[in-house]
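To whoever is covering the structure queue this week,

Two jobs came back overnight. Logging them here so there's a record in the thread.

Job A:
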Amino acid sequence: MHSKTALAGTALALILLAACSGPQQDPVPTAAEAPPAVSDAGGASDAGGASASDSGGATPESAAHRYAVTPPAQPVELTDDCTGEGMHRTALGESADPALPERSGAGLDVVLSGVDAQGRAELTAAVDGGDPAPIEPAAVGDTIMIEDWTISVTSICADEVEFDLVN
């Protein structure tokens, strides 16, 4: 039991170190970048067929935008990524439980969409009820910054992922 606690403590320390010392990335497009792409597409597509793609205009923008994943400074060495440890849990197609706390009056919904062939979690994030945006495939120990939240993946099982809220 002590080795699991020590491993979890070491992993958390490494994650915090990586979050504090790693390069800063801004995964969110600036307001100046996103609206012109949507409005240019809308203005250029007055024809009937192209207008159908405009109704799904948020989908291509969401698909192009992915939240970045920051790997830990030191690789996490586990015999099994399915540790069953984490403050929040999401199963296939389900929102995180317990729900993440609101930040600046907005909520965050993290949902597991699958686990890839390399055993990495395929997650999506929706801020304040918006369209879900994909997160880069994440491994145990990876940190993900989503606007005002930072989460750290702590367990990846076949049908569920657990993570901690770092800040």
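Job B:
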Amino acid sequence: MTVTTDVLIAGAGPVGLTLANFLGKYGVRAIVVEQLPSLIDYPRGVGLDDESFRTIQSLGLAEEVLPFTVPQHVMRLVNGHGDVILTNDPKGEPYGWTRKHGFLQPEVDNALYEGLARYQGVEVRFAHTLTDIAEDADSVTATVEHTLEDGSTETFEIVAKYLVGCEGGKSPTRKWMGVNFEGKSPSTRWVVVDVNNDPLGTPNVYLGADPARPYVSIGLPHAVRRWEFMLFDDEPSEKVEDDAFVAELLKDHVPDSTKLDVIRRRVFTHHGRIASSFRKGRVLIAGDAAHLMPVWMGQGWNSGVRDATNLGWKLASVLKGHSDDRLLDTYTTERTDHAKAMIDLSMTFGSIIKPTDRKIAFLRDTAASAMNVLPQVKEYFTDMKFKPIPRYSSGVVVDQKTLAPGRADAKVGGGRFIPFRNTVEKNSPVGLQIIQPRVNTATATNVRLDDVMGDWWTIAAWGNDPTRLLDPEDVKLFRRLGGTFVTFISETQRPWAEQEFGYSSTVVGDTTNALKTWFDVRSVGAVILRPDHFVAAACLAQDLPKAFHATLEAAHATLATVSSATPTAPVETTPSTTARA
């Protein structure tokens, strides 16, 4: 038996399910194969950031996920005496959501899984194991083994245009690709203990940099408490199955450590590794299959979701004939640097927490106390300014000063135009996500920006109708691509703009002046936004035609195909009746 599809995804974890939702939304057929008989029902990740929540919003699943989260999850690093070394409590919602959330991964993963029922062309097949991969010029053929309820197996083939391995750190897909998996795997082991009916009942997170035994204590939604403890070299991993040993670990944390409703206990080792490439021909990898990082910054789950967000629209563009295959090379180009930066940060943070030498711990605590005296240093950690922000300097970007495609200088100062020399913000917005404030339109009040712009390409201008800045043929071309034209304007001018521009552009009222400020300090009048809300190009209004064509080049657009295509904006199909066996 042979089954055909557009994209085969190996692994029904959060990354595979997120990618499948994007493909379904964009009208691309996909099959997800998972070797387990069902979704994993115990928590692994515990932190969900604002970038990931923006992705969940894009998938139309925010309301389904919110009940399983704790917003504004504060993290405190404390020493062995209980003194706070640093607090991590970032404020503001630049991307439309609280910067940090605690969450229950099984329930959020299940929301992603249930979301696939909206798309007729997407299905998940449990108890299906990828056993072999063969590739030719036009497709990938995967040999899949299906384990039946009676334990017997049947083997068949799935032929797809592309295969994406999302099977985790031991990914068979990555091994088949033959790429290096570079980095470190420290020998330190940790035991995770998850407990129902939280015996502490306190919110938030404590990282215990205690030389006696480093630990983590996390309050999670639905009365779940997680502890993590470092194991010493002379403590075998099997010891964690001993109730008395676990009770001893917890005796100083709870009134009675012998009376706990334990969900699970597991031993894990931290890894800091990244693949040398996320693509080989028609085979790609994402999530832990592409990079592994320690848990300290809670970025493993989020980094995988970033991969899926970056890759989903690119696969759709190629498969719909809007871009040629070279677009997929930008996936590795854009995601590698940020994934490396998150790995490095997580490894560094671990080195701060783990010392068991009391002299080293004393020096760390003394240095931290001295730094906390300085307001700027304290703010740097409290507002999480140390967290790397994804910025794409090459890929589907256009340089702001030269309008050259494929690369973008982070700095704007200087250049041929006075507005650029006068700009307040010297860093270009190109390659960064645009902000997401609350806005008004003719049909919606106080809504998040993405909900009125949609999830495909957008050309937006401040105070102008972008269709009047482009040649008529370019306007037609962009609409054939399924793109949206948007006018950002002060809320006070929205009624006028709706009469003047409303027939050709979606008019968005800036009720908080956040968008006005964003355009003002960057000295730009128009932006071209990618489907993942990153800025592909930013320019003065009169330069929009040049920026548009440079963006098409950076996205490897196949203009002949696009010119004859019908509009292909993101679509949501009726609920699927496809069996998820």
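Note for Job B: The radius of gyration is 25 Å.

Please reply-all if you pick these up so we don't duplicate work.
Q.
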